[in-house]
Structures are given as C-alpha cells and as structure tokens.
Amino acid sequence: MMAERRVLVLFGSQTGTAEDAAERIGREAKRRHFQCRVEALDSYDVANLINEPLVVFVCATTGQGDPPDNMKTFWRFLFRKSLSPSSLCQLDYAVLGLGDSSYPKFNFIAKKLHKRLLQLGGNPLLPVALGDDQHDLGPDAVIDPWLLALWDKVLALYPLPPGLEIISPDVCLPPRYRLHYLPEPAPSPAGTLAAPCEQRPPAAPGEQRSPAAPGEQRSPAAPGEQRPPAAPGEQRPPAAPCEQRPLAARLLTNRRLTAETHFQDVRLLEFDIAGSAITFSAGDVVMIQPQNRPEDVEQLCQLLCLQPDRLFVLKPTEPGAALPALLPQPCSIRQLLTHQLDLACVPRRSFFHLLSCLSPHPLEREKLQELSSAPGQEQLHSYCSRPRRTTLEVLWDFPHTSSAIPPDYLLDLIPRIRPRAFSIASSLLAVPDRIQILMAVVHYKTRLSKPRRGLCSSWLASLDPQQGDVWVPLWVKKGGLKFPADPDTPVVMVGPGTGVAPFRAAIQERVAQGRRADRSLWLPQATWLPAHSVPESRTGKEQCPALPSAGNFLFFGCRQRSKDFYCQEDWEELVAKGFLTLFTAFSRDQEEKVYVQHRIREQRRLLWELLDCRGAHLYLAGNAKQMPEAVAEALQWVLQVEGGLSASQAEEYLAALERSQRFQSETWS
Which of 67, 258, 290, 298 is deepest in the core (most CB within 10 A)? Predict the structure, then answer.
C-alpha cells in the first residue's frame, strides 16, 4: 500500500517573505499531487506534530536572533525539557531559514530549530538552508537549488501515483478563495476600518472601539476564544485588543516636530485608548493596521474592470481553510482593496509567476515568464526591487494581463496589508489613556519619476483630527527592550533619530515612579568627569567616585539642533528638573560631522564607571545600517581605554552584558 502523500508546510514570518516562500512550497507540493496545508506555526496545534509524516519548516529570524511573532508559542513548546528525545522519530523534515547576513545572528532561528528537531528524533531530508537577503538575487539564490534537491528526496520517498505527472508551472492552480457575488443590492456591511476624516464608522467583525459613552457593551470574543456567558447584570471588562480584534482608536494629535524646511517630516501622534483594556510598559510597541489610498483603489478598479461597490461573500475552495482575518461578510470590492490587499508593496517573484499564468497576451506573458524565471532574477531586481516599483505600478505596465485577472485570484496575487510596528514613545504613568508615537514619514526618490511613499506613514500623516474624528486600528504587543525593575539601577540610552522613542517612554515611566537623579548635567559637547588612572581592579567599589545611585543618561543624535531636535522641550524640562543627563550630537551643526559614537568616546570615564561599578543597563535603538556597529566599536574602545581590556576582552565584556540582558538593542532597516 502506498504511503499517504501529504506534506505540511509551517512558517514563521514577520514581514511576509517566509510566508511567501512557504506558499511557494505549498504550490509546488500540489503540482506533485500531494495533499498540502500551509499554516503559520502558531496557528498549528503543535501536539499533532508527532503524527505528521513530512513537514517543511520555513522561518525567519527577527531582531537580535528572535523568532517571528507567529511562531513564539510553538517555539516555547518545542523547547520544553519534558519532551522525549524520540518524540519526532516518525517525522521527516526540512528547514528553510530566511535571514540577513548583515546581522550578527544570521538565520539563528532556522539553525536552532534544525538542531532541536534532530534532538527530538526527527529525520532531516536535507541540511538546513540559509537564505540571505544580502545576496544579489536575495534568498532565491539559496531557495531555488534547495527546492530542487528537496523534491528529489521527497519523490524518492513518496513517488507520484501511477498515471500522474507533475503539473506544469504554466498551468494555473485553482484559487484559494472564490468571490460569490450577491445578485441584488444588500444592506451595507459592517467593516470600514479607520477611514480618514469621517464620522465614526461601524465596527468590523471582532473590532473594538474607543468607548463612545459609559456603559458600552463588552467587546466580542476573538476567533476561537471561549468566553463563558456573563452573569445577569455583570459588567465584564473588555478583552485587550489584538490583531484579530484591534481597537479603533481616535487620533487626537498629529503634530510635525521637524522644521518645515527640513527634508524629513517626523510626527508626534497621540491616540486615545481610554477604556480599551490596553496596558503597556516602556519598550513595548504599538501595531497599526494601515490602508490603501482611495485614489489607488479607484485606479485598480479601473485597471481590472471591477465595480468597487459590488458586494460578495468569500468562500475557501478547500474545506477547513480559514478566511482572512477582519474581512467582513458580505464585503465590497472597495473594502477588500482598501483594507486587505497591499497595493503599495513591491511584488515578489511569485506575483509575476501567477500573473504569467493568468495572462492572455503573448508578449506580456513572455515578459512575465522571464521575470519569474530563475535566470531572470537580476532583471526582476532591476525592474522592481531596486526602484521599489509597487504592485499597482506593475499592473499598469501589463494592462492586457491586468484587465483579464479573474477576481477570484486577487487574494492569491496580492499579499495582505501587514500591520506596522512603532515603538511607544510615552508612558501610561505620565500620560494615562494615551499612546504616543514618533513617526518618520517615509518619502524618497528612486529612478522612477514618482517619489516612493511608505504606505502606513503616508496614510497616518494625511489624517487630520482637526477636520473631524479619525479612527486608527491598533493593538499593543511586548517589545524587545526590557527596562530594569530596580529603581536604583542607572540606565544609559543611545537613541539617535526616532530611535529615541522607547527611551522617551522609559524616562517618563522612571520619572513618574519617582526615580530622580541626585544631579543633572546637560553637556552636549564636553567630557564632564576628569580623567583618572585606570583602576587596577574592576570589582572594587572603593575605586568608583560618587555618582547618582540612579539616573537616566541619554545620548541623542540628529542633524541640526534647529531642525530635527525631536521633543527638545521635553528633554530641556527633564534636565532642568534633574531627571535626565543628556548628551547631544548635532551632526551638521559644525564643519566636522559628530555622531553619538563620538559623544560615547568623550564620556568614556562616565560610561565605564556606570557599567562596571554601578551595574548600569545599556540600551541602543535606531537605524540598523551603520549606527549599531559604530556604537559597538565606540563602546569597545571605552572598555579598552578605561577598563584596560584587550580587544577580545572588550568584545566578550559586551557579549556578557548582552547575555545578562544588561545590553539590549532594537534596530530596524
């Protein structure tokens, strides 16, 4: 009897790349006549893993070697010490990792997952594959040959059934969903999420609202959540908002912090979260669900010959498949395109492959096939990735194909709009019932004539609460920075640009809790502690001069004091009241550029004493390009000069701080 031919593809994805790769593997499995499911790791019941014959894991690595949000529960379960070494002895598996070799912990999660599955008795079909964003061809440079080898192994174990052949890549597989249009006009469905400058819209399924009035009804349960019925007259508190049940928060302020003459537009936004059950601490992040611009939606409807107000009910083509979260039923085409499909994203290779299958136009089909082929990846990069050409713009470039796209394939073709994460820049202890964020509006030029704009930041920047109530879907999740609970622990924070946001929250929180330094100094340029000889021992407390038993020390950098000194009034007030020691680096205010790493070198004596004598915690946040490496080099130099360490000892000193969570960083590209 032939073994059951089924494969499970599980993914952990933060930005969508791993999910896209997992969907590709799923399609290739179906072309080889396997029963196949593709699921996020945290959506899968991990207890069933012992019954799976064949699993392909696709996982990204985020931050400083962390698992993506949608695999954290799976990750904790897999590393339980109680699991037997033979738990997965029936499992054949393969692991595909997606990472960025410019980060120190390149593909850390994939490597660790592969090792753990081995420990639990799993049988690897191939060595772990390590895709790299830094490669000229991106992760596909690794994925393409790895998949060829994978299917050779899999088909050797599970041959094709007699009489069947691999379905050609030129043949379209059935869509995941079908749009069943309603024959007659129906009542307007619930579900307009955060439309700008309009009256409070009705809530989408599962969506919470900032309370309109006291006594508002409790929020609905999230999908799959079991909640016992409320007792008669019971006023049950609402559940905390989450991705499946966001809060439509009212935008209160949208204030530009940078000078009008400055090239970059940075905003301070404040949202009302009163009554929402949202709680957070310094270091946490707020997730915001953006939407497409109305003019882009109209353009796509025109291009694809869609009626924007036509209503439909979405149904999966495979039994048991889940529907997209927050999609109302029934739904209009306009709602689908506004809130669900990311028209502003740069399309991936899979987009061009599906488009080629759908194209009735020979010349356009040939070009699309070329762009989706392995040899055509450099051309695809030049056409699409390098100039950041959007999905909508690509569709305009292939008009005959676009006008022939069946609506059923829209959700296969265009990825969903992903929420964007922002470091929270305020503390509930200082600003109750509010969330504040610092946001740089993404706007830049490529070789394309039209400037590139960030979907979320441009949408938020366009909202004007002075023109009427504006609602933004959001929820909060734990961030990567954890600040010390001990009020006597000093903190040193390095936050150039918008990297200062989590430190604004931390300082507000510590001040509100009464953490006042015994003295304050605001020295943007000079070293304020005199030099002294290197101590013989780094452990003798008697060698450390008196310093504040607690304190907030912030290194902030920007271009010019007069143009982009974010939250200047806040810092000056905190310094004046003795809550903050501030060091600033205005890189363009003098002939020679000065950055935060230069200020760190100047304050070498202070930093050494804080780290080695006072047990200070060190934090770094900001752009991931060159700043983190430059700051790390400056810190190692400080350890060598003031601590008498060798280069290797200084490197190990910083590594030890990281392991003990006394040195934490949060960077983004």
Answer: 67
